[in-house]
Amino acid sequence: MSSFWTGTKVRLRGVEPADWEVFQSFDAHSADARAVDRLYPPRSAAWFRESTKTRASHGGDDLDLAIESRRTGELVGSLSTGGVDRRAGRFSYGIGVGHQHQRNGYAREAITLLLGYMFSEQRLHKCEVKVYEFNEASLSLHRSLGFVEEGRLRAHEFFGGRHWDAVLLGMTLPEFLDRWEFPEV
């Protein structure tokens, strides 16, 4: 029997308190930090230990998952959902893959595993993501997965001395099923 959370390249698992050092190492790459959130001042090991401990004990509708490489067993990134609205049937997510692990297909597979779960097991109908206009790699990835650009929030975020647009993308359940099938039960 195989796990729903395991693909050919990645395995999704819960965040563990011991993951803090890897998350701290990911934070050291400024361009990546901006691409997924924002650039923060240096944070202490104690901050990362506490933050990761909180993530590891997180529950509720939102998921906080670690992305592991199946080939090496190494933690390569993380993925978390947010804004789960069961009445409207939609959710959003954020993903980050460590700089040294990018361009290996980890994000693509992690996202498709997540979408399969949220659509087939949680009965949600639409996924929404926000990507900053300068993050061409993420925009290209999401478009190749079948996300459709739905709009822009102009001059929405401030990075590197200027304001940037946030590109809003979405995928509905029928659009997902045009490309993928639900796993067999």
Question: What is the fold's blueprint, element by element?
Answer:
Blueprint lengths: L9 E5 L5 H8 L2 H7 L8 H12 L7 E6 L5 E11 L4 E8 L8 H15 L5 E7 L3 H10 L2 E12 L2 E11 H5 L8
Parallel strand pairs: 4-5
Antiparallel strand pairs: 1-2, 2-3, 3-4, 5-7, 6-7
Helix pairs in contact: 1-3
Structurally, the number of domains stands at 1
Total helices: the number is 6
Query: pLDDT average, as an integer?
Result: 93
Secondary-structure-based class equals: alpha+beta
Which spans have pLDDT < 50 for at least 5 consecutive residues? none
- H/E element string? EHHHEEEHEHEEH
CATH architecture: 3-Layer(aba) Sandwich
Number of beta-strand segments: 7
- Bulk shape: globular
CATH class: Alpha Beta
Distance between the termini: 11 Å
How would a crystallographer describe the biggest sheet? 7 strands, mixed
CA radius of gyration: 16 Å
- Relative helix content: 25-40%
* CATH fold-level name: Aminopeptidase
Structure description:
With 185 residues, the protein is an alpha+beta fold. The chain has one domain: Gcn5-related N-acetyltransferase (GNAT) (Aminopeptidase), CATH 3.40.630. It is 31% helix and 32% strand. It has 6 helices and 7 strands. The chain has helices at 20-27, 30-36, 45-56, 106-120, 136-145, 173-177, and strands spanning 10-14, 64-69, 75-85, 90-97, 126-132, 148-159, 162-172. Strands 1-2-3-4-5-7-6 form a 7-stranded mixed beta sheet, sandwiched between helices. Helix 1 packs across helix 3 (45-56). The radius of gyration is 16 Å and the shape is globular. It starts with 9 loop residues before the first strand and ends in an 8-residue tail after the last helix. The mean pLDDT is 93. It holds the Pfam family Acetyltransf_3. GO terms for molecular function: acyltransferase activity, transferring groups other than amino-acyl groups. This is Protein N-acetyltransferase, RimJ/RimL family.
